[in-house]
Amino acid sequence: MQWLLTHSFAGKALAVRRVTENHGKKTPGVDKVTWSTPDAKYRAVKKLSRHGYAPRPLRRIYIPKSNGKMRALGIPCMVDRAMQALHLLALEPVSETCADSHSYGFRRDRSTADAIEQCFTALAKKTSSQWILEGDIRACFDEISHSWLVTNVPTDTVILQKWLKAGYIEDRQNPWKGARWIRARYFHREVARHWVFAADTGELTAEGKPRRLKLRKASDVPIRRHTQVHGNANPFDPAWESYFEDRYGLKMANALSGRGKLIRLWLDQDRACIVCQQRITAATGWHVHHIVRRVDGGSDAWSNLVMVHPDCHRQIHSRGLTVMKPAPKRGL
Ligand SMILES: [Zn+2]
Ligand SMILES: [Zn+2]
Questions:
Q1: What is the rounded CA–CA span in Å between residue 303 and residue 313?
Q2: Where in this chain does the record put each HNH nuclease domain (predicted)?
Q3: FRET label pair with 306: which of 41, 144, 159, 264, CA 20 to 30 Å apart?
């Protein structure tokens, strides 16, 4: 089954789509390649072959941590990211089914908020533990046993071994500026709060001061109720399908709060994009497309609107696709 998935055209196309629609899509690896055109993406799908595959080293860069030290980040090439996305497609249903019910890092459909809720549940009782041990394993991913991984991870071990041996290349393209430069560049003093992570946008405010984007403090964020994900919930198990549908719905309602028309659009399309039929979620994002263009007299009425993924929307316009409103699948 995993073999079939990682060798199928559909799996490869989905993998390329994943890595060309996420936030890092414009950040290249050591080969300086990004896939920005439909043509490049199509050639990429055909290139995703196991035969003769040799991953490139990671491009290692450093980003500042809030304590003034630097954190190393490894950036793979697009083709290696796509290959990893392809094999994740086959691995994740297995790992999600076997994983600890209360682990939250790097898990599908689980978030920091779920981990916080679980901490609260475990710590709020009178009889709860009084001490918490927080461990940060030094160089965890550098030191972890490769032979253990190859023996225990249920994936294509030939490919896994190649990734483990890929290594990295230090990127000295951006000269090392030192902690002081980074502090001056990214951390700005604010009243009563030092070390605020922020960057100038280059614009000016109405008062003529530089407009800054700043990282918000957790305590600045209004408390919003979060329902913790059920420990045994598995997004790949059909028995949990309606459970996750409700959660996606809640998240979407949060993202669309106060926008009843959009929620209705989303539900009428059975939560799917009308171009690719894949689900639209708060995480994928969405655009609202006018079936009859506004410049041609199309209105903002519900009957003239459809919800699509941002990339699918670009396709409608660049390829001049005609779309139709699907018949609502739900009763009134
Ligand atoms: Zn779509
Ligand atoms: Zn449009």
A1: 18
A2: 262-314
A3: 41
